[in-house]
From TrEMBL:
Species the sequence originates in: Maioricimonas rarisocia
Protein name per Swiss-Prot or TrEMBL: N-acetyltransferase domain-containing protein
InterPro entries: Acyl_CoA_acyltransferase, GNAT_dom
Matching Gene3D superfamilies: 3.40.630.30
Pfam families (UniProt xref): Acetyltransf_9
Signal sequence residues: none
PROSITE patterns assigned: GNAT (PS51186)
Molecular function terms from GO: acyltransferase activity, transferring groups other than amino-acyl groups
N-acetyltransferase domain mapped to chain residues: 8-163
Length: 182
């Protein structure tokens, strides 16, 4: 498979490509109602990693660059959002290639961590992510409504350390996402 990876600013994506992204999200997340009308769950990702095969969008990953507050001070993260691969293209390592591409991007630019939230973490664990069990604080958003601040240990949180900085382990440490949960 000769994939072409494209990191693109969200505001540069055309209406036609947004429709392809929406179709892909709908295929990959059929139980999610947001996919019938938009290409994002809680907030537009600032960038997307798009993968093209012979002119067809076959995979996408939202990418957010953010500062978070760790117990020992600010840290930089790339948030991985809604990784999805078209059904016909699964099983050949494309999702892992996308994750490795993102991890290398972070390392190249001195980012401390890549973080994401996933119920099924098998793919991410195979690519160097762990579940730290850290308490997290975030802006709660549901269907375009910001309705408070969440503060809890989220089992879905997965982290990959990219450099010497260590993510805190366990519920006694709190990390403030300083924004919405990816």
């Amino acid at each position: 498979m000769s994939d072409r990876f494209e990191l693109i600013d969200e505001f540069r994506i055309t209406v036609a490509v947004h429709e392809q992204i929406r179709d892909l999200l709908e295929e990959c997340f059929p139980e999610s109602s947001f996919t019938s009308t938009r290409t994002w769950l809680k907030q537009l990702p600032p960038r997307r990693l798009l993968v093209w095969e012979e002119g067809e969008l076959v995979a996408q990953l939202g990418v957010e660059h953010r500062v978070v507050r760790l117990p020992d001070g600010p840290g930089t993260v790339l948030g991985a959002i809604d990784l999805c691969v078209r059904g016909a293209c699964r099983g050949v390592g494309l999702a892992s290639s996308m994750l490795q591409w993102l991890l290398e991007l972070g390392r190249t630019h001195g980012i401390d961590f890549v973080i994401l939230f996933a119920a099924d973490g098998r793919l991410y664990a195979r690519n160097g992510f762990c579940r730290p069990g850290t308490r997290v604080r975030w802006l709660k958003i549901h269907e375009l409504d910001g309705f408070g601040i969440g503060d809890d240990v989220l089992d879905e949180l997965m982290v990959c350390e990219l450099g010497p900085r260590r993510w805190p382990d366990g519920p006694e440490a709190t990390v403030d996402l300083l924004g919405y949960q990816f």
